[in-house]
Amino acid sequence: MSAHERLTAAIRAANDNGRTALVPFITAGYPEPTEFIATLTAIAAVGDVVEIGIPFSDPMADGMTIQRSSFVALQKGVSLEWIFKQLEGAGDAIDAPLVMMSYLNPLLAFGYANLAKRAVGSGVCGFIVPDLPFEESAELRDALEAQGVGLIQLVTPATPDVRLKMLADASRGFVYAVTITGVTGGDSGLPDGLAGYLDKVAGLSELPVCAGFGIREAADVANVGKHAAGAIVGSALVEVLENNADPGAYLRSLRS
């Protein structure tokens, strides 16, 4: 099984067990770099897939919560090289397959071939790159796929149907369905029309569809789970860490 196939398998295994797959997001090294692996391990014990955010100075798709966490992590010296070393040193402590969410600049600076090799060696099965248009992604996609690592595509409610199908076919691991036209971390809840949108994406994709942005409560996970394979929980979990609360307990509460 390739790395990106591990993502698909983990999500489908959750669905086969009668539940919505849970995909928690954390910013690497936040709130304290020394606690990164312990925090990640606790979250991976509950999540089916874990998304690790690579701190970046201008996270344009993220709201204030993740922007704050990214700023703090950068101030404390967290880098992509540091993250890989931490993951490589963790060995088999982390059960869930991992995804990295990064803007393009850190990946370019790291080098695509090096990135793909280090990903395989550290349990990273896929990448999400919000500021990389599909039309400019071939070089990164080819480097990742040479190592069995997936480039996960994002779609939104504004994505035209023809393009939506193209992105779903190109995605690996799962398709990331953004629930809103905006940034992460909003408090306005899930939008009207979400069911029809998610049903459409799921109908066009052979891969599981995971929905993200605006998911904060068990009711949100339940609503999303009626129409998508997985729920991605980001800003709300980062706020739990910001408040020094128990991330595992919070994630378990989402399944109640």
Poorly predicted tracts of residues: 182-188
Number of discrete helical segments: 12
Number of domains: 1
* Arithmetic mean of pLDDT: 92
- Topology as a string of helices (H) and strands (E): HEHEHHEHHEHEEHEHEHEHH
The CATH superfamily appears as Aldolase class I
Kindly report how far apart the N and C termini lie. Answer: 32 Å
Which CATH class is shown? Alpha Beta
Please summarize the sheet with the most strands.
9 strands, parallel
By secondary-structure content and strand pairing, the structural class works out as: alpha/beta
Q: β content, as a range?
A: 5-15%
CATH fold type: TIM Barrel
How much helix, percentage-wise, in residues? 40-55%
Strand order of the largest sheet: 5-4-3-2-1-9-8-7-6
From the spread of the alpha carbons, the general shape counts as globular
CATH architecture, please?
Answer: Alpha-Beta Barrel
Write down the Rg: 16 Å
- The tally of strands reads 9
Entry summary:
By secondary structure, the protein is of the alpha/beta class.
Question: What do these coordinates show?
Answer:
A 9-stranded parallel sheet has the order 5-4-3-2-1-9-8-7-6. The longest helix is centred in the first third of the chain and has 14 residues, at 3-16. The protein is 45% helix and 14% strand. The protein is an alpha/beta fold. Helix 6 runs parallel beside helix 7 (138-145). Mean pLDDT is 92; it is low at 182-188.
List keywords for this structure.
alpha/beta, globular, nine-stranded parallel beta sheet, 14% strand, TIM Barrel, 256 residues, 12 helices
